[in-house]
Amino acid sequence: MYTDMEPIRLFVLNEFNYPKFRSQIVQLYLHAFTTGEYAQHIDPQKAESTLDEMVRRGMGVMAFAGDRLAGALLALPLRYDEDFPAGEVADVPPDTTLYISEVMVHVEMRSRGIASAMIGDLFSRAAATHTDAVIRVWDENKPALSLYDKLGFHPVATITQTKKHASGESFEMKKIYLHKKLSISPPA
Length: 188
Description:
Elements lengths: L7 E6 L4 H17 L9 H14 L1 E7 L2 E10 L19 E9 L8 H13 L5 E7 L3 H9 L3 E11 L5 E12 L7
Parallel strand pairs: 4-5
Antiparallel strand pairs: 1-2, 2-3, 3-4, 5-7, 6-7
Helix pairs in contact: 1-2
């Protein structure tokens, strides 16, 4: 159980400290995406390998309340997102764009500014090497869409993915790619 009294502390998530927190991050990932209103089926072993690969290729942020993991964010270069319709979005450069692949906040800790704080921390570190940021969101996830709009992201493309509900039944999920400019000129 989390309490409102615990301050949120942010830490870099990278390949060096990831092994220590891996099981907590995997559990948070599964909790975030397999429960609640937006629940879908995710194989736990596939989740582990996906998260391992994201950390290997990218960077992240962890948020703690006391000694408990309250949130995690993972990002990697956009060129690793095979679904991004680069041909339709010519003004988003894949080599200097950061793709925020996962933003997870424990349900008990939502609406406390954790996602905004993690994104802000990521941007402060990424601005030296990235000109833009992209995030992909399910069109029915209104809280996330509202947050990203407040943070200055704008829609640039959509895709449709076939997913499975927690029950195993297939469904179509429309995802919106949102874009934000991080800097005026490309990094040197």
